[in-house]
């Protein structure tokens, strides 16, 4: 065994206990993760895994080398550090970098257990991740594409270029429908006619007629008329979000030698479907980045800090680790996600307290702030000292108490494990929920008293339990300490980032966490804070996650102008396309459609005179919105203006969050 493998084995042995106990603690806290296999890797292997999206084998392509180089340079020159990587699979596979300290390794392990729980229980992952062994699926894809690249009858460069064409559309799938393979024999009647015309053209070639005869009798207008003889056909019936799937079903390849569209080869069809399948597999990770990272950060912090999974000599190192993660500049999904989950927990726990207070005699939503001593409330909801200091109260714990694990209590009294190191083993989920009740933490002590009149009225309106208490102490005797955690798990099951932000980002959250919007202003030529209103903050954040933060493009017509041209439409929500990138993408799409492609969009246009006037008056100019049609015919890009009635259906009357397709604001 070489020295590197010996070191990896030694590290693995040292991590056996932390791995086992982190899994046990996660289960006690109510998590239900996939089993996790941990692997020890070196620095270069970690960078390779990150480049490959967390898997050890991917199809050959230059993108992986580019991502590896970016990751390596980030680590080397920008001080970035890869703490962990875990993939969505059953079992999950997590990779630990051997150069990490024990504090870092424990932080990664606790973080990973929470990710594995999210993978296993979030419905979006269940919708798209139907293959029980994702690693094997991706390995099969890799081998298939590798075989095509090594086939002497297929040019490797052609395969790589085909992959490039498809990858420019990898986010153009339908996130709201489960993945389903495209039927290989599904062809539209329009394409059948097109292929019939191609057959006719081939037969004319076989007749060896002179160009003059062909031009006079069988000219382009006549051939086109054969396509149109059944009248105009438009499809699909409704705009299609799965652009890749539509191209897989109806697209053709463009043969540059023959200068015409031809049927895709078997390898082209299979690679297109492989990349589409992978796009669906990775979709839920993109759709839940804030939720997932926030969830993992929350439970990592609970285990490492509150349950002292980080030993006393590791805590400072861990605190530095967490500070690096939460303090990363720019948009930080870890920080936003963690703060939102903490807010969800606090608001649900507060609702529990408020509902009980509103059942106290002579307390109503109108007079609650006047009649309740909130300092008394804080004292009454404090956890039982037996739970906060288990080692000192070991002999006094009652094995019949639902907050106590009777079997573990007996083991602790018999010295089977170190209760000072693992006090949580003696408690049940209910006991741990009380032990870590969020509203008694110093930073949250004023959260109950800050409840607003509007929320009090709303809670009162929907209270159906008419039980009454004589006083506040009686009302808070039997509060449900698990309510916050229970609610968090419910939300974890059904939401994605867009719905998560839409429901839980409130004005209270924005004010407490100092969120704001900023915009580039034409009048000053720089960026300025524009709003602290939660609706504005919400819109700004949600646009980052709508369609993975990419423009929403749909197939509007596969027989545009009755000429088998493709018409794509941009669902405009106030953010215009980068027209240069749009033109480049159309050139790629042309290769997958084989015939001219079009894109409808809306752009904002500013008059230079209006900008100058706005600067003098210190106000923002109002841009005009103009419809555009961009077309690529295989040789040149053309752009023309469209009347507003041709694009009005693309413009949302409000920000189109893309969360509920049948409720789009269009």
TrEMBL record:
<feature type="domain" description="SpoVR protein-like N-terminal">
    <location>
        <begin position="13"/>
        <end position="350"/>
    </location>
</feature>
<feature type="domain" description="SpoVR-like C-terminal">
    <location>
        <begin position="551"/>
        <end position="602"/>
    </location>
</feature>
<dbReference type="InterPro" id="IPR007390">
    <property type="entry name" value="Spore_V_R"/>
</dbReference>
<dbReference type="InterPro" id="IPR057008">
    <property type="entry name" value="SpoVR-like_C"/>
</dbReference>
<feature type="domain" description="SpoVR protein-like N-terminal">
    <location>
        <begin position="473"/>
        <end position="548"/>
    </location>
</feature>
<dbReference type="Pfam" id="PF24755">
    <property type="entry name" value="SpoVR_C"/>
</dbReference>
<protein>
    <submittedName>
        <fullName>Stage V sporulation protein R</fullName>
    </submittedName>
</protein>
<dbReference type="Pfam" id="PF04293">
    <property type="entry name" value="SpoVR"/>
</dbReference>
<dbReference type="InterPro" id="IPR056174">
    <property type="entry name" value="SpoVR_N"/>
</dbReference>
